[in-house]
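Exercise 7.
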Amino acid sequence: MSPTKPGITGVDLLTVRGLRKSFGSNEVLKSIDLTVKRGQIVCLIGPSGSGKTTVLRSLNGLEVPDSGIASYEGNTPVDFAAKPSRSQVLELRDKSAMVFQHFNLFPHMTVLQNVIEGPVQVQKRKLADATADALALLERVGLADKASSYPFELSGGQQQRVGIVRALALKPALLLFDEPTSALDPELVGDVLEVIRELAGEGWTMVIVTHELEFAKHVADQVIFMDGGVVVEHGAPGDVLVNPQHDRTKLFLHRLLDR
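Solution. The predicted structure, written as tokens, is:
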């Protein structure tokens, strides 16, 4: 997909500089720089343990990096080295919504209750408005008849579509997907990827951790290959996935494609 596709405004939605994160003696992120333009689709690829999920969790405020800065649309940057306050972290989290690898739905809540929990309890929206929005979103992904069901009554693909709806219900500036198909049976992957393709076509800004290389090739505007906590290579999907320049990228793609 061309970087000049309709929907990309040229405005930097998110800017991250020098992001570092360690867990004990394990330095998981080593000075990550990232820029995401409004309307852009960025796919993060790389081996397990390369830091991809930690990047997403840092962008969403689920992890607080040790240092680095992050800012949305030129707002005052959050400086992680200065130990941001809880309110600063929550303000960062308000800009994005996460779709998790293992769904992370509340098992004791119905589908509808899962979707409206954030808008009502966190964003303090009116229950009637949040419910109407949730039902419309469930209709959109073919799950209107599951509003009263519980997560255990759904297939993995259905649960993940509920996870996407739950993120959309928050009306975020940025959608974050952490390997959204890796926990699904192969025959269920296509339905979830199709929902994400539709969102891409509508101009949603997304950062997606994925091993679905064909999907990334056709949907992404930018592909970032990470390994060992650093960005090894980045660029248009036709460059990184078809004609990579770095030996480490070539080896990763060769191993993944030869499975």
